[in-house]
Amino acid sequence: MIMIVTRKLLKGIMAVGCAASLHLMASQNADAQISNDGASLNNNVTTIDIGAGFQLKKASQVSSARSAPAGIGKSRLPLIDLDNIPLNRPSVDDGVALSSSSSKTRQFGKQASGTSSRRWPYSTARVAVTGNAFPDIWPAQVPVASRPYRLTGKLWARWGSSWYVCTASLIKKGVLVTAAHCVHDFGEGVAGFADEVLWFPANWYSGGGPFGSYAGTNWLVPTPYVNGTDTCDPNGPGVVCNNDIATVILEEKSGYPAGNNLGGWYGYGWNGYSYVDSPALGASRVASITQLGYPVAFDSGYQMQRNHSIGRFLQTVVNGHFLKNTEMGSAMTGGSSGGPWLVNFGTVPNVNTNNASLGVAADPNIVVGVTSWGYITVGVNVQGASWFGQNFEFPNANYGGYGAGNIGALVQATCLATPAAC
Length: 422
Known about the structure:
Blueprint: E1 4-5, E2 23-25, E3 54-58, E4 74-75, E5 79-80, E6 97-98, E7 122-126, E8 152-159, E9 162-172, E10 175-178, E11 196-201, E12 214-222, H1 223-227, E13 246-250, H2 258-262, E14 267-270, E15 276-278, E16 284-293, E17 305-318, E18 321-329, E19 340-343, E20 366-370, E21 373-375, E22 382-386, H3 405-417
Parallel strand pairs: 1-3, 2-6, 4-9, 5-21, 14-20
Antiparallel strand pairs: 2-14, 3-12, 6-14, 7-17, 8-9, 8-11, 9-10, 10-13, 11-12, 12-13, 15-16, 16-17, 16-19, 17-18, 18-22, 19-20, 21-22
């Protein structure tokens, strides 16, 4: 079930069994909307049961028109030892799909650029340009302030008097997707929720970015993550898990949700949208992934970083249940947590289909995961993400038309709680 609490977020997701299927929700322009007849959130109650195995935290305060908190913030990226990550290939394939869219510290290790010690190629670089082709615009704002970059931003979350930093992106007009650990401490129940959440789209300096800030009004975390029963690697409980994902519902500004003000939102995919079993890569199930984030070891976490690599689907058995993740090469560090892993990122060109093809599963700007964990060992330069799709906790192939598995159930619960945000 989903609950709304007045001060602390609850984590955890409940699941039902069902066959796997693959599909996706496409990214949308600002005028795209999804109607929803779900129950609206009642601001006069402290908790509400909306079903689906999620718990919702209601912000104790909603601050508007404020600058970013002082300092670079503390990282929340969970890390694990190099020898403790499952590397098994999946024994079965899921279906693939896509959606329509328009106070505890965790250490992180500094990571170098180049090819990792595990020989995983990638390319990590700052999004901002170094020269100024636009006289009236700071170079640091180009192209981060343009679409589709500006649909990602720096996330600040407060526990007590301490601020922590992550990354989050829009997947509905008023809904962010991020990592659960960015807004909740694994297994800590109600007491594990953050007290306050702020989001700065296209953040490019210490004070924020060109679009100001949006306060979170509610955030939802899967119940298994909240209560600590999620399927996780036994050597890294709360680090490498099935359901390190969460949503944050944003306040409106000037009567409009963030997606309308920013010109759109990303889509999201599940069960391996745009992944292929590649003979060229040893029959691994892989996808070409773009990762966006604000790692604090790069430009003090104020500038957006962009990473490209091959993401590989990993599946192993933990206590009789499949643990599903994706790994890819990346130099990013703490602060990148919750940042989107996108397939087909960028602006779609006009294609002469007589001479060229963008290929299959080519819908643009589709989120298939969010940065969840990394390695302690310096220089490994590999990060992981919970698999968007069906798993033990969320086995259904369709949650109310919002998609399969954990991401479908999470978005359904979010949109039932606050239909206007979807």
